[in-house]
Design brief:
Enzyme class: transferase
Radius of gyration: 18 Å
Helix content: 25-40%
Keywords: S-adenosyl-L-methionine, Transferase
Protein name: Nicotianamine synthase
Strand content: 15-25%
Mean pLDDT: 85
Family: Belongs to the nicotianamine synthase (NAS)-like family.
Distance between the termini: 28 Å
Pfam families: NAS
CATH topology: Rossmann fold
Length: 274
């Protein structure tokens, strides 16, 4: 089920999908909160992190995101933000431990309890405790600080529907620094019944660089975009109007910057993990 077909769903099916996404988000929050509490009971919580049942999925997802990031951002970012980090910030922990080993990670969540639990997990780690920070705030209330980040990750459940997601992305487009990278988690196919979808055509203010749809146990699709100067013509608008009229949601590969965005290439999992 491709993104552009979502409009063809009946109202009843759309309502069921909305309820499923909400249920999925609630269940994910409860699961992460439970395991965060469990891990915090150990003297060194991060040594037991593999107890989380979806740890291997997060390893693969973080690896994919890092590989996509390095295609478009060759230097190691000094400051990274993760929006919607939750009580068990596995993505930030894995990225900071395995891939971006000198970057500082600023994790944002509106739930103070989630941040309290998350900070306990890294407090005993001599490295991560110095590089991971937790901010309790609705991201829509954060503006000037967003300009400090070279890379921002947007969690799948920040914005539970199209309207909320669009509001967050518009806020980021207005406040991120030109040239900064935004990595977003979306969904494709039947997985749209578990997570909200981001349509690349809706990323006004950003240059879409990569759109990747996993076909294994990794659920989330990954979209990589670059904040563009305000006067620069939207690349994704150009794609929709000249390359894929009315079918922007069918982009499955990445826009090759060496070909000025005129060639859309397919990415396979083997290529990303090699």
């Amino acid at each position: 089920m491709k993104g552009y077909q979502m409009t063809k769903l009946s109202n009843k099916v759309k309502e069921i999908r909305s309820k499923l996404i909400t249920l999925c988000g609630q269940a994910e929050g409860i699961l992460e909160s439970h395991y965060s509490t469990l891990l915090a009971s150990y003297e060194n919580p991060l040594t037991q992190i593999t107890l989380f049942p979806y740890h291997s999925n997060y390893l693969k997802l973080s690896h994919l995101e890092f590989n996509l990031l390095t295609q478009h951002f060759t230097q190691v970012p000094q400051k990274v933000a993760f929006l919607g980090s939750g009580p068990l910030p596995l993505s930030s922990i894995i990225l900071a431990s395995d891939h971006l080993k000198t970057s500082s990670f600023h994790n944002y969540d509106f739930d103070p309890m989630a941040n309290s639990k998350a900070s306990k997990l890294v407090s005993s780690d001599p490295d991560l405790s110095q590089r991971m920070f937790f901010h309790t705030s609705d991201i829509l209330n954060v503006s000037d600080d967003l300009k400090d980040f070279e890379v921002i990750f947007l969690a799948a459940l920040v914005g539970m529907n199209k309207e909320e997601k669009a509001k967050v992305i518009d806020h980021l487009a207005k406040n991120m620094s030109p040239g900064a990278i935004l990595l977003m988690r979306s969904a494709h196919g039947a997985r749209v019944f578990l997570y909200p979808v981001i349509d690349p055509c809706d990323l006004q203010g950003f240059e879409v660089l990569s759109v990747y749809h996993p076909t294994d146990e990794v659920i989330n699709s990954i979209i990589v975009a670059r904040k563009k100067p305000m006067l620069m013509k939207s690349m994704n608008q150009a794609i929709c109007s000249s390359i894929l009229p009315s079918k922007c949601s069918e982009i499955h590969g990445f826009i090759n910057p060496l070909n000025h965005g005129n060639i859309i290439e397919e990415i396979t999992i083997d290529e990303q993990l090699s």
